[in-house]
Amino acid sequence: MEEHAVAIRQSKKLTIEQMCMTALMAAAMCILGPMSIPIGEIPVSLTNLVVYLAVYLLGTKLGTLSCIIYLLLGLVGLPVFSGYAGGVGKLVGPTGGYLVGFIFMAWISGVFIERFSKNIVLCMVGMVLGAAMLYLFGTVWYVLLTKCPLYAAIAACVQPFIIPDLLKIVLAAFLGRQVRQRLVRAGLIRK
């Protein structure tokens, strides 16, 4: 009985490989997140592409953890958010809901990717639902902080991003599957 309890506790611990892969995906978010195309108050960035890849490669829990690490690094002031910004002000400001929304996006996308890993269409559906939750959370946050009408927030904060985000979803679905298969074959991540 005692051996079983020890085995359960040990199985909940992260391996060195899992910690390294989680850190690498958080680092990729930190590197690609600041690179953005300003199209208004909310720029187009590559962060969500890396979040999708993180959950594809690491699974729901570790992919979401890498996203949380990214947000914590930005919270303490590292310039990892779009436009090389960081700090508490960015995270709790009008567009901070979109940053916090990455957590929900990662979780929802990851659940679909884990459950339907052999069906690329359902994986993309999960990523679309994750993006929808990101839009919902971020837009509600934006409206509450700026007091702007909902239609104006949707026009400024959602509509310009739909096509670029759909392209990132398709890219992540195909790239994520290929990279995951190669990492599994190389023994760097578990099946």
Any overview of this molecule?
The chain is an all-alpha fold and 191 residues long. It has nine helices and two strands; from the N terminus they run ααββααααααα. The chain has helices at residues 2-11, 16-32, 47-58, 60-75, 88-92, 96-115, 120-146, 150-157, 162-185, and strands at 36-37, 44-45. A hairpin with a 6-residue loop joins β1 and β2 (44-45). α2 runs antiparallel to α3 (47-58) and α4 packs antiparallel against α6. The longest helix is centred in the last third of the chain and has 27 residues, at 120-146.
Which helices and strands, and how do they pair?
Elements: H1 2-11, H2 16-32, E1 36-37, E2 44-45, H3 47-58, H4 60-75, H5 88-92, H6 96-115, H7 120-146, H8 150-157, H9 162-185
Antiparallel strand pairs: 1-2
Helix pairs in contact: 2-3, 2-4, 3-4, 3-6, 3-9, 4-6, 6-7, 7-8, 7-9
